[in-house]
Amino acid sequence: MSSPRYVAAIDQGTTSTRCIIFDKKGKIVAVDQKEHEQIYPRPGWVEHNPEEIWKNTLEVIAKARIQQHIPLEDIAAVGITNQRETTVVWNRLTGKAYHNALVWQDTRTDVLVTHYEKTRGADWFRERTGLPLATYFSGLKLRWLLDEVPGLRQDAEKGEALFGNMDTFLIWNLTGGVDGGLHLTDVTNASRTQLMRLDNLQWDDEILQELQIPRAMLPSIVPSSKVYGTVQSEPLRGIPLAGDLGDQQAALVGQTCFMPGEAKNTYGTGCFMLMNTGTEIVPSHYGLLTTLAYQFEGQPPHYALEGSVAITGALVQWLRDNLGMIRLSSEVEDLAATVNDNGGVYFVPAFSGLYAPYWKSNARGVLSGLTRYGNKGHIARAVLEATASPNP
């Protein structure tokens, strides 16, 4: 019998879910992708339906395999990468989520940020977790859910409610769900909760007590690369599940930035630059995050410095879905090319506050410089320049 020829990757992103199948040389042989709904209940609130994402995950896996008629025995392993910080809580007995997932862009915890800035100060959290107080991270989102969803805190204290970022939710479902699904997360995703200490890679009991989060609902923290178990769900039943990284750390590994000082920059929903700092925890004095880069089984953890911008590609999506200026995202370049410059129009896409280096959770988006001269071409140009200005 021949050895397996492929590996599969599940990429659960902010706007869509993909399954990509690679051959031994890293060449893509099949890919399928499906968008999910972006839910905006109130200004600044952003949610996803975790059940929709789970169904989409199964669908894209099946369609990717069908494209090239790939049998199960030809797949050696599957790994997961995911939108970080997006917070979901579900019942271990029923598998049902208590609430829509709170997306990393969601700003409803701004009141909690203000409260803890006054009572504890940002440095108390940063020194332990590498992260400033901000609406960005999972811990405060989880606290909000525990406070606001009826019955959730009681179930959490009984050990019936489970918490995780999207990687944890998918792993639990893929490995059996209510029938013994694995409740775990890797060090990179755990580092984005603001609940894990950087120095020992363990949940911090003092932070849990401060945020009133029951420890029983937290997943086990594991390395980013090891065989965690086998998939129990079709269409990957029996395949080893062998990797889990947050999407930006996965990009760092995928770009083979394994040496200290090597960095990658990724443009997607947001823009994220990560630089490997090796096994050293490097605090930033200039508004960057100190975070986990990766940990391979049997090896020490590697850390990174990160600069984050919340809205880049999502600004094009907003132009398409909210304003209806374009029908497809790919049309934005042609629209921007109808003008020679931005006509004095500038966009600050702080829809979810300003991230690095400012960390202003109360900031909001600004479109400025509008005159009667301005048209939709100038706005499209301002959108692209806000994402990645071609000129210094």
Task: Describe the structure in your own words.
The chain is of the alpha+beta class and 392 residues long. 28% of the residues lie in helices and 25% in strands. The chain has 12 helices and 18 strands. The strands form 6 sheets. A 6-stranded mixed β-sheet has the order 3-2-1-5-12-11. Strands 13-14-16-15 form a 4-stranded antiparallel β-sheet. Strands 4-7 form a two-stranded antiparallel sheet. Strand 1 and strand 2 form a beta hairpin. It is globular and about 65 Å long. The mean pLDDT is 92.
Task: Briefly summarize what is shown.
By secondary structure, this protein is of the alpha+beta class. It has helices at 50-67, 110-119, 122-129, 138-148, 152-157, 166-174, 187-190, 205-211, 247-254, 313-321, 332-336, 376-388, and strands spanning 6-12, 16-23, 28-35, 47-48, 75-82, 87-91, 101-102, 161-165, 184-186, 220-222, 225-230, 240-246, 263-267, 271-278, 289-294, 302-309, 346-348, 366-368. The longest helix has 18 residues, at 50-67.
Give short descriptive properties of this protein.
four-stranded antiparallel sheet; about 30% helix; about 400 residues; about 25% strand; single chain; alpha+beta; six-stranded mixed sheet
Q: In terms of per-residue confidence, which ranges show pLDDT below 50 for 5 or more consecutive residues?
A: none
| Percent of residues in helices | 25-40%
**What structural class should be given to the helix and strand makeup?**
alpha+beta
How is the main sheet built? 6 strands, mixed
- Strand proportion: 15-25%
Span of the ends, CA to CA: 58 Å
Which shape, going by the Cα principal axes? globular
- Report the C-alpha radius of gyration, rounded: 21 Å
Helical run tally: 12
Look at the structure and give the mean pLDDT. Answer: 92
H and E string: EEEEHEEEHHHHEHEHHEEEHEEEEHHEEH
Strand order of the largest sheet: 3-2-1-5-12-11
Number of strands: 18
